[in-house]
Design a protein that fits this description.
CATH class of the domain at 2-39: Mainly Alpha
Order of helices and strands: HHH
Shape: elongated
Mean pLDDT: 88
Radius of gyration: 28 Å
CATH architecture of the domain at 2-39: Orthogonal Bundle
Low-confidence stretches: none
CATH topology of the domain at 2-39: Histone, subunit A
Distance between the termini: 49 Å
Helix content: 40-55%
């Protein structure tokens, strides 16, 4: 396991001392043991999900509504040129 920890640390550009590598090897071992326990469970009749809780995305019809008047929109702008918002140039 120590070799795996060193390899992963090198890929992640981490400089681990021996104590850190030993501690992380033990933690990784615990994680892998837990994953093995989960792998032993029969999940053949559990449907795949993308979220733990049901999530619904309400869709509405795309229909035209009254638009905001240009002068009304520009009235709240800190700066404008009479036609559009003006913002600082970003390069």
């Amino acid at each position: 396991m120590e070799i795996d920890i060193r390899h992963v640390a090198r890929l992640a550009r981490l400089d681990l001392d021996d104590a850190e590598a030993e501690r992380l090897a033990a933690q990784l071992g615990q994680i892998l043991d837990y994953v093995a326990q989960l792998d032993a469970l029969d999940t053949s009749d559990v449907p795949p999900t993308t979220h733990v809780l049901p999530v619904s995305t309400p869709w509405r019809e795309d229909e035209a509504t009254a638009r905001l008047d240009r002068e009304e929109a520009l009235a709240a702008a800190p700066e404008h040129d009479g036609q559009a918002f003006t913002v600082p140039k970003v390069v």
